[in-house]
Design a protein that fits this description.
It is a single chain. The protein has 429 residues and is mostly helical. Helix content is 70%, strand content 1%. The chain starts with a helix and ends in a 12-residue tail after the last helix. The C terminus is likely disordered.
Length: 429
């Protein structure tokens, strides 16, 4: 079903693109100066985009969901353009699609040449979102019905704001559907995160698009650079924030590897636990911010072992007595606090060995995933399907005290989707 939805979105975008380009080539470009100005703005926005981050690699911050806000605002403004310096515009929906597609392709060519081009799903979203806004505005305005009913006063601004809200909702629905098909994550949490993102950078894009359209309607094309500069500066600020966030995550990842370098844990253990924990968190509906905290805590969950004189055999804390596991977790929380990570990360690290009823949700996830990794590597002596199934069965036996049942079953579903285990039904009682 998810794959079908994704292919439907891509096919619709492809058909709109062909129709827009074909119609424009056949009839010619209406008001070529206006089309060139907005096309240049969209292309510049795409050229200034941030490096495309591989989606599905972990929590995606809201600011990174639209790497080319200036291009998105320019495309939206062209879709909502009704006048140019007091003169009615005559371009239609299909020309809007053609100009947006041509400008976006021109802007991403240099990125593709460097091997950092955007995903096709991003382009499909842009086409469908802009087409939705244009279909809702252009026919009404060009026919005169919109002006006859609302005039040129504040009512048309309210109409544009309502239309922007619907456009943002359309974009969020499309983004969640495409992300769900790509990652297999639940649709509900993905849609919620996309809607939250619309309150940040999405609101700035929509507001700038409306202001551009209204500014050009009054002052002409000279309004475009005036209203583009603030969003361009905002885009540059987001890129700096994203670079800082990437550096911070790399620092935590390097710190987490200290246990592997020192020989306390197997190579790659913390990264596997972090990736699997984030997948389980997605399955349980955690927000983007909660997933980020969960990822940091999962990366650092074994940091307390650095305080031990004698290493735990193979770093398998799940096989230790409860008191010893809690002592090591407490040491880990103290170490985490000294590194300057958010306090909630340190709390998760130090409480990961407690009974699940006393833990926050993130600590329940880290404990169950870490136990699975430890047990799957030791039950039967090696990592193989039988060992994975036996590890899950042992986690289910501990759901009365140690592991939350919902977390264990979410882990089983995530592993089944990844092809690592076959889902085993929970026994009654």
């Amino acid at each position: 079903m998810r794959a079908w939805a994704a292919w439907t979105v891509r096919a619709a975008a492809a058909l709109l693109t062909l129709a827009g380009l074909g119609h424009t080539l056949w009839t010619g470009v209406v008001e070529p100066g206006v089309a060139l100005a907005f096309g240049t703005l969209i292309a510049v926005g795409e050229l200034a985009r941030g490096d495309h981050r591989a989606e599905g690699a972990g929590p995606l911050p809201a600011a990174d969901r639209e790497p080319a806000p200036l291009g998105a605002a320019g495309a939206l403004a062209y879709a909502l353009l009704g006048q140019n310096a007091g003169h009615p515009s005559a371009h239609g929906v299909l020309q809007v699609v053609a100009v947006v597609v041509a400008a976006a392709l021109a802007g991403i060519v240099p990125h593709v040449a460097r091997g950092r081009g955007p995903a096709l799903d991003h382009v499909a979203r842009r086409v469908l979102t802009v087409a939705f806004a244009a279909v809702c505005f252009q026919p009404l305005y060009n026919s005169g019905r919109l002006e006859a009913r609302l005039g040129q006063g504040p009512y048309i601004v309210l109409f544009l704001l309502l239309l922007l809200g619907l456009t943002a909702l359309c974009d969020a629905v499309l983004a969640a559907a495409l992300a769900g098909a790509r990652t297999g994550w639940p649709y509900g949490p993905l849609l919620r995160d996309e809607l939250r993102a619309q309150l940040g950078i999405g609101a700035a894009i929509c507001a700038t698009g409306v202001v551009m359209a209204l500014g050009v309607a009054v002052a002409g094309l000279c309004a475009l650079p005036v209203f583009s500069v603030p969003l361009l500066l905002t885009q540059m600020s987001f890129r700096r924030i994203a670079a800082i966030r990437t550096t911070y995550r790399q620092t935590i990842t390097s710190l987490a590897r200290a246990t592997e370098i020192a020989g306390y844990t197997p190579p790659g253990h913390s990264r596997r636990v972090a990736a699997l924990s984030c997948a389980v968190g997605r399955e349980l509906g955690l927000s983007e911010r909660e997933l980020t905290v969960l990822e940091y805590a999962a990366l650092m969950h074994d940091i307390g072992q650095l305080s031990l004189v004698d290493p735990v055999p193979s770093g398998a804390t799940a096989c230790l007595p409860a008191a010893e596991a809690r002592r090591i977790a407490g040491l880990g929380g103290e170490v985490a606090r000294q590194t300057g990570v958010p306090a909630e990360v340190a709390v998760i690290v130090e409480r990961q060995a407690e009974p699940y009823r006393d833990q926050p949700v993130a600590a329940r996830i880290v404990r169950a995933v870490n136990a699975y990794e430890d047990l799957a590597g030791h039950v039967g002596g090696s990592r193989h399907p039988g060992g994975s199934l036996a590890a899950l069965e042992q986690l289910r036996l501990g759901t009365g005290h140690d592991y939350q049942p919902e977390v264990v079953e979410s882990l089983a579903r995530v592993l089944a989707r990844g092809g690592r285990v076959r889902v085993v039904p929970v026994r009654p009682g």
